[in-house]
Amino acid sequence: MSQDSILPIHSPTNSLDNAQRYPPIPLMSPDRSDKPRDVPAATGIAQLTVHIPSAFKENVGKGQDNDRTSKPRWRTAEFYFYYVIFILAVPVMAWIPISLSQASHPNYAYYSRRLSPGWFHGRMVDNSDAQYRSFRNNVPILCKAALGYLVIKYFTRRFRTIHANVVLSLIMVVALHGSSSVKILLIMAANYTIATKTAGSKLGPLLTWAFNGAVLFANEIYQGYSFGSILPFLSFLDAYSGAYPAWHVMFNITMLRLISFNMDYHWSRHTTTNSDADVSKMTDKERTSTPHNAADYSVLNYIAYVLYPSLYIAGPIMTFNDFMWQFKQPLLIETRFKIMYAIRFIFCFLTMEYILHYMYMVAIKDRKAWVGDSPAEVAMIGFWNLIIMWLKLLIPWRFFRLWALLDGVDPPENMVRCMANNYSTFGFWRSWHRSYNLWIIRYIYIPMGGAKNVFVNTVLVFSFVALWHDLTFRLLAWGWLVSLFVVPEIIASILLPPKKYSKYPWYRHVCAVGGVMNILMMMAANLVGFVVGTEGVAFFFSQLFGTMEGLRFMILCSFCLFVGVQLMFEYREEELRQGIVRRC
Q: Which of 225, 349, 380, 415 has the smallest C-beta neighbourhood within 10 Å, fewest atoms?
């Protein structure tokens, strides 16, 4: 497996023979239906967005007379005009990066060395992004690992004990990290000790956060600390590094599970448990918030959760409570849903392949090969780098979620919307890395006061998110920018609340103008944090706002974004008519 970074992108007295053995998958409790949950499916254009069962709300959108929905605008003269603009603008947005990626372009020589031989129509491929390359190059190995794991689980399903999960998890970690797996297990042991010794006390959360924060910083400073640097006579162990020696890179995700386990265990001491709860009738939120018996917070369950193979490398992130409810009473996930999800993954993967073969945006960005480019071309370099960033995260997350779904585990969907289908700052972060967002809400935002201190909590949350991704000023600047950019939306929602003004025809258009501003600010913030940094964004701004040609382009661009936001509004109205409330 490639050594490149994959993604920067839970009771000692328990009786194992009794409490740790769960019924085989085919067996159901007497009052539990053996049919998959009856969750409605989206229809029409709303099917384009990935299916999220918890998004369906009863008594919402039941017909056009519902107060929360409007009559469809798809066939109005206004929207036919929008369709014309859309049909004209989108091909141009695709043609510009393709033209910049031709061998005949004057800047081609500046970045051509970053390209690799491709497999599509004789084209070179831009495989220069180290993060996505580590996934793309290892897709065959990952598919074999997933297949082997699922085959073993299939033949051992009649003996559904936690022991099988623990053994498979330990084998996977040793194969990935070699001797460094000992470091992971030692950290896990220390965290588990904190959980069991302080659960229920005020000291528990404090020690949990302090310990995991210290480990996160130490991992970054010492780069996973080699055995030789700790004790010279152990240096021989560094030779057994496994398929992926950089264990500390993946530990950022692991840390979230460690905190989840400790906090769920801590809160279970203050909450009444319901061991007879029927998982098939529980929502994902209920599985997350409903605690287990003390015996379920055992060391074997802890290991099985933290090192669960399907989600270990990159997530999505599940809470310990949710994981254990699904392990004890496996959900019945429809075969059709799994097939359609696999088709979605393949489509997204092939879309990325097409982009990497025809749009060399990452190589151009890395080499700053934009000399002489027009403001429109510079803008498209930034835009398509954001699209590639979205896809390079979405594809691994959907692969690992698909693996989990095939194993009978339903983790949260990480990417709900396309990156280009967002106009709200808050909505964007609810749909982008959604499982991480849910984790932050449960373990940081709500405990710190939630909406009572919305701005302070927003700064705190995005500062944590930035430092969790990477201990650099660039990411910290991104976090502060995002915190600043949510202020206009907060102020607008106070001055122009929808309950008071949504009935007026002008309200939708004013909101669309605000949506355009939000999109421009979100693009700027993410370009700073994840694409070109502050210097690159300063250059982009000088080209777009420092010249007459750039200003003319920005006016045209803003108009096109206005049209796009109107289509986004109507798309969400269509979802609302079907009883779908995604809040993003």
A: 225
- What is the tally of helices (H) and strands (E) in the chain? 25, 2
Q: Block means of pLDDT (10 residues each) for the chain, length 584 residues?
A: 37 32 30 43 81 68 57 94 96 95 94 93 92 93 93 79 88 92 94 92 92 90 83 83 86 94 92 70 84 91 95 92 89 90 96 96 91 88 91 95 94 91 86 90 88 78 80 70 81 88 91 93 79 77 86 93 95 89 82
- Cβ within 8 Å of residue 435, ≥6 positions away: 315, 316, 317, 318, 411, 412, 413, 414
Provide the annotated active-site residues: 469
* Helices of type H across 199-246: 203-222, 227-230
Contact 568, 511 (CB under 8 A): no
Q: Which amino acid is at 95?
A: W
Q: How far apart are CA 273 and CA 294, in angstroms?
A: 9
Evaluate whether 494 touches 437 at the Cβ level (below 8 Å): no
What end-to-end distance do the CA atoms of the chain give, in Å? 36
DSSP H or E stretch at residue 102: none
116-117/124-125 β-pairing: antiparallel
Q: The tokens of 489 are what?
A: 């939306």
The total number of residues shown for the chain amounts to 584
Beta-bridge partner residues of 116: 125
Using CA atoms, how far apart are residues 81 and 563, in angstroms rounded to an integer?
Answer: 9
Q: What phi, psi does 117 have (nearest 5°)?
A: -60, 135
| Residue 298 structure tokens | 């055992």
* Long-range contacts, 57-64 (Cβ 8 Å, 24+): 57/579, 57/580, 57/581, 58/579, 60/576, 60/579, 60/581, 61/575, 61/576, 61/577, 61/578, 61/579, 61/580, 62/579, 64/577
The answer to whether the CB of 13 falls within 8 A of the CB of 396 is: no
Tell me how far apart the alpha carbons of residues 30 and 16 are, in angstroms, rounded to a whole number. 24
The answer to whether 412 and 435 have CB atoms below 8 angstroms apart is yes
State which amino acid sits at residue 335.
Answer: T
pLDDT the model gives residue 32: 34
- pTM, to two decimals: 0.86
One-character DSSP codes across 181-199:
HHHHHHHHHHHHHHHHHHT
Q: So what's the pLDDT on residue 3?
A: 41
Cα 336 to Cα 36, 58, 395, 405, 558, distances in angstroms: 11, 23, 20, 12, 41
Burial 236-249 (b: 16+ CB within 10 A, else e): ebeeebbebbbbbb
Triad 264, 323, 311: Cα angle to 5°: 115
Using alpha carbons only, what angle is made at residue 1 by residues 354 and 258, rounded to the nearest 5 degrees?
Answer: 100
